[in-house]
Write a structure and sequence with these properties.
single chain, 14% strand, globular, 6-stranded antiparallel sheet, 47% helix, 2 domains, alpha+beta, 17 helices
């Protein structure tokens, strides 16, 4: 990440400010599809290579739901589009897929609810502008999806950028360790909601999140058979591996699960490895999640601690190369699961203690591990109004700035951003232009679905 070393704070700020000469902030609003722009649908379809073939039509079906759902599944397309956009030259650890549905609540190791970015499949070092542009575009697209007027969409998007810019200025004035400790916890989440007139909605979200734990997951995803909990068979979204492995006996399958669990254990810290030693794997299943991840191998592993009332669900997600790597530097990590985990730890204020990774030595696939249910909650982006988006704009803008300030040079970035609304106006313009293009891409995608050239299956 770009850090201006061995300079005073004033020199770092002036350096950031000087970068406006080579890349004026107003230039960030200029965007149109290049004449030689790759076919966006082809880019999306190329990502299906190596995915589970029977789930690829499910991925397409989920992307059909709306232009926003399509946008969620087209991070690769946007990476290709961003590759030719102007940048200041300052880099950070990127989320890589910073749309507003990838922000939400989860439990900290200290058992507090925190609001943060919660998806890092595409994380990689790169220009801070790429994250803020994807997030800005997502606000305009979400506003249109929910029937808001153009003026309302512009307003909430500008507000998000403004809070990013102001938060970065605050982080530039902080001591380094204070940036590292900064977080948006439950109290701040509710206080912000009160200021925005969304206290009832925020309280409902936090209450629901606090009910999403391992016991609740056990009730939802498992059933008791012969005094033993087994994961339910609910295709295509949930399919136990025992129902897919005709060639493997139950003992052989258990051996594979035990081996995967053991290799994962070696990636966590010693204290967490000791904790995991107190659990035994019980059952494993394929689970379809999200939009962009559908088709990748995603599993849930049920473990049992002291007894049936002490379950632990771990999610195991396939990690491929980041969609950003084609346009930026390659990851320094050989295992893409480790890339995801290390990027997450760098960007989040606090992270899941069970984060880890492993590799399937037979297939060569990389995976990262985390808890499945741990007080997770978020606003339903498919059903939000202008006030909801206004509230989210404040939360997401601050949170993304904090994540970037942890890995990049907050002083230099704040110097570049400045105190005027130049960047705010530019990114609103960019977001609207990109939202227009996203709608065109969505229409092209739907045409291929309706014509039968691409198969889509509900799931």
């Amino acid at each position: 990440m770009t850090t201006v070393r061995f300079r005073t704070v004033e020199e770092r700020a002036n350096f950031g400010k000087s970068l406006r000469q080579q890349t004026p902030r107003s230039r960030h609003g200029d965007w149109s599809a290049a004449a030689d722009r790759p076919d966006p649908i082809d880019l999306i379809e190329e990502q299906n290579n190596g995915r589970l073939e029977w789930l690829v039509p499910v991925r397409r079906w989920r992307m059909c739901a709306s232009p926003f759902a399509f946008f969620r599944g087209s991070a690769r397309t946007m990476a290709a589009d961003l590759a030719s956009t102007p940048v200041s030259g300052l880099t950070v650890q990127l989320c890589g897929d910073a749309h507003l549905a990838n922000f939400g609540l989860y439990a900290s190791p200290e058992r507090q609810l925190v609001f943060d970015i919660n998806d890092f499949d595409e994380t990689l070092e790169g220009p801070w502008e790429w994250d803020i542009k994807r997030l800005a575009a997502s606000f305009v697209i979400a506003a249109r999806h929910n029937g808001l007027k153009k003026k309302q969409g512009r307003k909430v998007t500008r507000r998000m950028v403004k809070h990013y810019r102001k938060a970065m200025a605050e982080f530039a004035d902080m001591r380094t360790t204070d940036i590292w400790y900064a977080m948006l916890d439950q109290e701040e989440f509710l206080d912000t909601a009160d200021k925005e007139g969304r206290e009832d909605e925020a309280k409902e979200i936090t209450d629901k999140a606090l009910n999403k734990d391992n016991l609740r997951a056990l009730q939802k995803h498992a059933e008791e058979v012969d005094d033993q909990f087994r994961i339910k068979h609910e295709p295509p979204s949930l399919v136990p591996l025992r129902d897919l492995s005709d060639e493997l006996s139950r003992n052989q399958l258990q051996e594979l699960v035990d081996y995967a669990f053991d290799t994962y254990r070696h990636s966590v810290t010693d204290d967490i490895e000791h904790l995991l030693d107190r659990f035994r794997p019980v059952d494993i299943a394929l689970k379809v999640v999200g939009v962009s991840s559908v088709g990748n191998r995603c599993l849930i592993l049920l473990l049992e601690g002291r007894d049936h009332d002490d379950p632990l669900f771990l999610q195991i997600k396939q990690a491929n190369s980041s969609v950003l790597e084609q346009y930026l530097n390659f990851s320094p990590y050989q295992n893409h699961g480790q890339r995801v985990v290390e990027g997450q730890r760098l960007m989040q204020a606090v992270s899941d203690i069970f984060l880890g990774w492993n590799e399937n030595e037979i297939t060569g696939n990389h995976f990262y591990w985390r808890q499945l249910h741990d007080w997770k909650g978020s606003l339903d982006v498919d059903d939000v109004n202008a006030d909801d988006l206004k509230y989210l704009a404040r939360l997401c803008g601050w949170t993304l700035a904090r994540a970037h300030a942890r890995s990049g040079d907050a002083v230099a970035i704040a110097g570049y951003l400045g105190s005027s609304d130049s960047l705010d106006d530019a990114l609103v313009e960019f977001a609207e232009r990109y939202a227009d293009q996203n709608e065109k891409d969505y229409e092209a995608f739907m045409e291929r679905i309706h014509s039968g050239r691409l198969a889509a299956v509900e799931g």
